[in-house]
Amino acid sequence: MRAVLTSHGSTGDIYPMIALGRALLEAGHEVVFASAPLYRDAIERAGLEYRHLPPDWEKEIFIEFMRELNRAPLPLLQLRWIYKGALPFMSELIDAMDAALKGADLLVSSYFFPQYRKLADRHGIPFATFAFCHNLVPTPDYPPEGTPALYNFPRRLQRRWNRFLWRVANNLVDFTVNHTVGELYQQKGLGRSEGFLLTPADLCLVAVSRELMGGIEHDPRFQFSGYLRWQSEEDPAAQAELESFCAGEKVPIMTFGSVAFDDTHTIMSRFLKNWPRGKKIILQSGWAGLSVELERPEIKVVHQMSHDQLFRFASMVIHHGGAGTTASVLHAGVPNIIIPHIADQQWWASEVVRLKAGVCLGKRKWPERLPHHVRKIEKHAHYAERARELAALLARENGPAMSVHALEAFVRSRAERALHGGRH
User: Fold this and answer.
1) Exposure pattern of 333-347 as b/e (b: 16+ CB <10 Å)?
2) Domain spanning 236-394: which superfamily?
3) Does pLDDT of 424 surpass 50?
4) What is the pLDDT of residues 338-364, one digit of tens each?
5) Burial class (CB in 10 A: 0-12, 13-18, 19+), 155
6) For the chain, what is the total number of helices (H) and then of strands (E)?
7) Pick the CATH number of 2-227+398-422 from 3.40.640.10, 3.40.50.2300, 3.40.50.2000, 3.30.565.10
8) Hey, do 2-227+398-422 and 236-394 end up sharing a CATH topology, with the first three levels equal?
9) Residue 344 CB-half CA count within 13 A
10) Exposed end of the chain (fewer CB within 10 Å): N or C?
11) What digits encode the pLDDT tens for the residues 398-414?
């Protein structure tokens, strides 16, 4: 089977798909990964065939795009901004994807672009989507994120209300996509967006632990596959530096991944003012460019490196709540302090709190309040105990293998249906 994978955005959108590509490759399939050139090196280092897609942005432009996205106050406005930002190169993007599908047997796309289904239909191949957070799974068990829940009402009424809200949310998302790029989509033969949330594909894999997060009623086309995690190569020099800095002690680690702020300097000045003298902490600079303006020996700044390597030194991880980072912290078996900013990060914060594996901190005053929450995690041992329990559970799961099995079964099923239809 020749599978074409595609994803767009930050490393949190790319690395899980690399993990899927590696698993497909190891299962004996051919894999093509179509994405922006910023990720070509990572894709090819994983042994996957790379196919170029626009935009040809340097990393600094991606960071600025994320900074602008962070200004949008609502998920729907963030989605609109993503499509609006892609509009200048969307025509070229669709043409490049169309060319990449020649000779393919399967297309798997991240959930942002379900309209690729029309391209897959054009080539007569199955289409599946991948989501990295289960807040995109329509279910009567809870309403869409950001909509009102009928707490303390009868269960039957809650479920009816939630179904209604999912239909409303689906219509609003379809309207937003169509209003932004609908004309171009129709020019390219992709038609209008329909069922963005409710029916994006016949198979919608959700790269989340089924045991931890999947206990909800949902349409069977949505399948929890388990986490897909891909790590960059470990850095021996960084390892030696961190070992020297920590001197056998586990310390708090702060990382905001691909989140970018408008006022990093001001935020970090506030952080420095409030962080206790003499207490060690590691800052990962990330896309926000976290740094310190005054040298303090108890604060160590590191740059890009493997989460698994970095988090071995963690007593807890202070982070933004991105899907990939949250998965890494859960697998590391250490408590979370989540400071959500955009998209699904508030959802992940609420899930970590539900799992009793950490706490959530608002983004407006986190530099002032962070030391108190660090002390809280250190004082209450149950956070660390619960984090270790969850890590042990996740160690028994194999998200890449589950995903490959689901995709293979999906392609076989489509082929069998086509054969059966041909007989009649």
Assistant:
1) bbbbbbbbbbbbbbb
2) Glycogen Phosphorylase B; (3.40.50.2000)
3) no
4) 999 888 899 999 999 999 999 999 989
5) exposed
6) 15, 13
7) 3.40.50.2000
8) yes
9) 21
10) C
11) 999 999 999 999 999 99
